[in-house]
Amino acid sequence: MLCKRSLNTLIVASMMGLALLILFFSGFFEFPYTAPTIPTVLGDNLTKPTSQINKSDPFKDLLKAFKRWDSQMGCAQFRKRHKESSLVRNSSVSSASSALQSVGDCGGLKMGHVSVLVKGWTWIPDNLENLYSCGCGLSCLWTKSGVLADDPDALLFETTTPPMVRRKGGPLRVYMDLEPGRKRSGVEDIFISYHAGDDVQSTYAGALFHNNRNYHVSSSKNNKTLVYWSSSRCLPDRNQLASELLNLLPHHSFGKCMNNVGGPDMALVMYPECANDANGAPKWWDHLHCAMSHYKFVLAIENTMTESYVTEKLFYALDSGAVPIYFGAPNVWDFIPPHSIIDGTKFSSMAELASYVKSLANDPVAYAEYHAWRRCGVMGNYGKTRAASLDTLPCRLCEFISRKGGRNA
Ligand SMILES: *[C@@H]1O[C@H](CO)[C@@H](O)[C@H](O)[C@H]1NC(C)=O
Ligand SMILES: *[C@@H]1O[C@H](CO)[C@@H](O)[C@H](O)[C@H]1NC(C)=O
Ligand SMILES: *[C@@H]1O[C@H](CO)[C@@H](O)[C@H](O)[C@H]1NC(C)=O
Ligand SMILES: *[C@@H]1O[C@H](CO)[C@@H](O)[C@H](O)[C@H]1NC(C)=O
Predict the structure, then answer these.
(1) What DSSP line would sit under 64-84, residue for residue?
(2) Which atom of ligand 1 lies closest to the CA of 338?
(3) Spacing, Cα 393 to ligand 1 middle (Å)
(4) Where is the Fucosyltransferase C-terminal domain (predicted)?
């Protein structure tokens, strides 16, 4: 039992390793990054509490900050504000929800069971392999085993191109590309990517990326060093953007790029409590969340700034209990909880952004408000983002195939 568990752990760990490698190198297929044109700070994304703000308190204790926010603002007011603002947004910006496909619609299923055979190498972790009971009474088998799925309804390809032709009545060809370029194979019957306009949308917001991590979350925030940054693929444009901001803010840079903590792999030296108790040499992704959680802010910059491309870089930071400073998809608000991140592109200059970050760092009540969505259960669009994540991909794909009528469609 123990043996099997640690073997599983190992397998999952190496899967994640490969996954992360792929994510790293995915940047080779990127469009050149163009520096964001930065409009001035605006409205609700930067909502400040209406109550009195103490701007000169370099607090460390997150729980105390929460208590102060509770007494000055509280969930009832937060919910009301974000209900109102979502209604207003809803009527004026009609595209707000079209960034996400709606899931869970029970209409139009034509098949009761769908089986998907996953072909070739893919970075989707193996623990998705299973027989699922999906909504609307559909069952879905998702497997890499040609024995378990001896007569599959669909074949899924990610890193390999599907066959040029599909014989009549043969399995549908599903092709997935979650890289920013969203390149179709040209021969698939069903295309999966991160955009709502694709046949099946898959976001990066799921727990799938998190298996086998150390989820220790620090309640004590570093009040001298404000920002966590880690990047080991030193893309010139990303580096430049990061350095423009980080030059203005006390930060720790743990990766290869602009490292200022005395070398790579220093996180465990600085935060020994982040060591995973799993056997084997620690890998940086095991303790990523835990290390981030010691900082008030995490800088998250996408490799490519393009619509709806919101990746685990942002969700890691959110999940660790830090406030992300984000440069990425222009429609990022369609994917995240209200008042949960600082959208760096909305500031007129890096100086203005840095000064906003510093003021938050010295203001426990205003800072605590960035955690209110979680404490008050206000998910906003994030609910839909999660529902369309990789975690739920087998059922959503099976439902799509079922609606299409399967191989005979
Ligand atoms: C944040 O700003 C963007 C861009 O101006 C806007 O479209 C969006 O509705 C705002 N988000 C919230 C939560 O108000
Ligand atoms: C403001 O912060 C200081 C320093 O932590 C604290 O002593 C004071 O009580 C705070 N004032 C208010 C109104 O919260
Ligand atoms: C907002 O959207 C919901 C469904 O998405 C709709 O039921 C509601 O009427 C909309 N509200 C406004 C003010 O448009
Ligand atoms: C950090 O917090 C401690 C205790 O709350 C305080 O004494 C110290 O001045 C703060 N440090 C900075 C750099 O603000």
Answers:
(1) HHHHHHHHHT-HHHHHHHHHH
(2) 13
(3) 28
(4) 222-404
